[in-house]
Amino acid sequence: MDWLRLTLLDTLFGLFVVGFSLIYWYKYSFSIRPPRCETTAHGYLSSDAHLKRSNSVEIMHRNDLSILILYGSQTGTAFCFAQALHSRLFDSGLRSLCLDIENLLSDDLLKLAQLPNSLTIFIVATYGEGEPTDSARHFIEWLEHSNTPLTGLTFAVFGLGSSAYSAFNACATLVDRKIYRRGGVRFADLVLADELDNMEATFTNWQAKLIPRIIDRLQKSKNLPSNPSYERLYKTIPVPQESITENRLFVGEPLTLGSYRYQKP
């Protein structure tokens, strides 16, 4: 009986340790880890799967698009921002093509410069000590070593990085400088978001200023798309104050709950 009792106690203790470890892991994984992007873009023309290494300019021309959003993301934040901008443009009646920058062909920027009223928006993260993301590495190397003129390319750059590193937002700064020196036309000033200084708010403010300018530009060129803008419908439901917890309270995040608190470039 003593042997059986000892075995039972050992078993209970082992189950307690395993249970405690699982609870700790669950809490750490879902409470401490920065939230993943849950934004989904509006169906067509936003998925990279069938567009990989394809002619983005041909796709834009065929679908009467004038806005191209290119993102270079390592942890997913730049991708989420690009998809958020793509969706917000759609809500404003503007269609765009959203692609991973690795899908850009070498001559696409040249063709975009010749596309009437086109606008290319770069949302680029800098990883570690000034390193480009894996998907943007080829493009950054091409910009650094090529002298191909990009005269007339209208563009805007939004950078994501951390001021904890000396080479803060090095990739976005390089993209903005190189394209401008090759004849590109800045549609908006370079904006650099800092992981340590409310990156989400920086993006929201940049987006809020950018979209009206895009609409104004297309109106002046009489190139506004035919699809109307869409209004979101909301239903307000009163929630008791005592049932609201801090980690479930929406405070204006453009992507997911808690993204103001937990940020990654």
TrEMBL record:
GO cellular component, one term: cytosol
GO molecular function, one term: NADPH-hemoprotein reductase activity
Any single Pfam family the record assigns to this protein: Flavodoxin_1
Segments crossing the lipid bilayer: 6-26
Record's keyword terms, sorted: Flavoprotein, Membrane, Transmembrane, Transmembrane helix
Transmembrane found in the keyword field: yes
Source organism, top-level taxon: Eukaryota
Domain Flavodoxin-like stretches: 67-211
Iron-sulfur keyword on record: no
Entry protein name: Flavodoxin-like domain-containing protein
Native organism: Paragonimus skrjabini miyazakii
